[in-house]
């Protein structure tokens, strides 16, 4: 059974590391989580991003939520902000697409054009 | 909304926007009483009588991107459609309490869904504030998850640290496995 005491062990371990991220700079992944986003399936998308970021140990990436982005028909919507690059907005996101966005865009710097709202809307 | 856990995720967003410091998600899942009760209690800014009276209308919203707000109306419709009830109370400066009951065996009652996923999403979406208290009660057992305890044990470390995320996921999973004898899925 998981106990609070285990958290204390995590704290000890983390405090010993230099790399505990204090900066909130870096790449941001923002998931729309208003009624429209949630109904369209934003929850598994957000959890997929968190899992993949943690699995790859991407310390410069934060995953967070926002309200209604304004294009409810394209939800779940995810915005990716890479420092010194234009914001990229993805529409109709899924768990599977999240994995590819992390690998291609966030790790390798190539946005996935076919998932962007511009491309999704033309389909 | 496909299930009750998504309604909970949706309604708690209102509490977050209301600037709550603690959001309580209280679930009673009783086969004996043939009842599921979901209460969301926050200590956010609350609503005045005028907004409170209009808040169950789909044409009331605080968002600026469009003129409809469906979170509360859909929750109310699902509760009443399964033989249950809906109520909401609020005081400016004190907070808001939303409560829905559902006929547990009613064929129109939505499934409970992934409460663990909802709680994890809430915490990860808003790791700094508010705190969340989940209490899930069945006829036989109950389970509590309180981010204030997690935060205290971490002494300033963020809740979205990968090891902490993994701990919370396992803690929630084990908690629900323990009470799953009486819980619905």
Task: Please tell me about this protein's structure.
The complex is a heterodimer of chains A (123) and B (185). Chain A has one domain (21-122): Glutaredoxin (3-Layer(aba) Sandwich). Chain A contains 5 helices and 4 strands, in the order H-E-H-H-E-E-E-H-H. Chain A has helices spanning 4-16, 35-40, 42-56, 95-107, 117-122, and strands at 27-32, 61-66, 78-81, 88-90. The N and C termini of chain A lie far apart (48 Å). By secondary structure, chain B is of the alpha+beta class. Chain B is built from 6 helices and 6 strands; from the N terminus they run H-E-E-H-H-E-E-H-E-E-H-H. In chain B, helix 4 (115-125) runs antiparallel to helix 6 (162-179). Chain B starts with a helix and ends in a 6-residue tail after the last helix. The model of chain B has no long low-confidence stretch (mean pLDDT 91). The interface between A and B is large, with 36 and 40 residues.
Layout of secondary structure:
The complex is a heterodimer of chains A (123) and B (185).
Chain A: H1 4-16, E1 27-32, H2 35-40, H3 42-56, E2 61-66, E3 78-81, E4 88-90, H4 95-107, H5 117-122
Parallel strand pairs in A: 1-2
Antiparallel strand pairs in A: 1-3, 3-4
Helix pairs in contact in A: 3-4
Chain B: H1 4-17, E1 22-30, E2 35-42, H2 49-54, H3 71-81, E3 86-91, E4 95-103, H4 115-125, E5 131-138, E6 142-146, H5 147-154, H6 162-179
Parallel strand pairs in B: 1-5
Antiparallel strand pairs in B: 1-2, 2-4, 3-4, 5-6
Helix pairs in contact in B: 1-3, 1-4, 4-6
């Amino acid at each position: 059974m998981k106990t609070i005491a285990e958290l204390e062990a995590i704290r000890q371990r983390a405090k010993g590391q230099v790399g505990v991220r204090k900066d909130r700079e870096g790449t941001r992944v923002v998931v729309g989580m208003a009624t429209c986003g949630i109904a369209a399936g934003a929850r598994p998308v957000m959890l997929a991003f968190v899992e993949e970021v943690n699995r790859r140990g991407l310390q410069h990436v934060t995953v967070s939520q926002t309200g209604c982005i304004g294009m409810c028909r394209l939800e779940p919507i995810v915005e990716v902000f890479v420092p010194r690059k234009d914001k990229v907005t993805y529409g109709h996101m899924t768990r599977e697409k999240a994995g590819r966005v992390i690998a291609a865009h966030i790790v390798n710097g190539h946005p996935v054009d076919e998932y962007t709202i511009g491309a999704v809307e033309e389909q | 909304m496909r299930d009750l856990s998504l309604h909970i995720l949706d309604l708690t967003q209102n509490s977050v926007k209301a600037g709550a410091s603690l959001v309580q998600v209280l679930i009673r899942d009783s086969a004996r009483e043939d009842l599921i009760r979901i209460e969301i209690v926050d200590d956010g800014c609350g609503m005045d009588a005028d907004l409170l009276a209009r808040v169950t209308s789909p044409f009331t919203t605080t968002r600026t991107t469009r003129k409809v707000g469906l979170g509360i109306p859909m929750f109310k419709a699902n509760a009443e459609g399964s033989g249950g009830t809906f109520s909401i109370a609020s005081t400016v400066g004190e907070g808001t309490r939303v409560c829905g009951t559902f006929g547990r065996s009613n064929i129109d009652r939505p499934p409970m869904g992934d409460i663990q996923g909802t709680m994890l999403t809430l915490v990860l979406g808003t790791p700094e504030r508010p705190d969340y208290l989940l209490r899930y009660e069945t006829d036989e057992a109950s389970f509590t998850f309180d981010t204030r305890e997690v935060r205290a044990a971490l002494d300033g470390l963020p809740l979205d640290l990968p090891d902490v995320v993994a701990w919370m996921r396992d803690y929630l999973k084990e908690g629900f496995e323990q009470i799953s004898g009486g819980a619905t899925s």
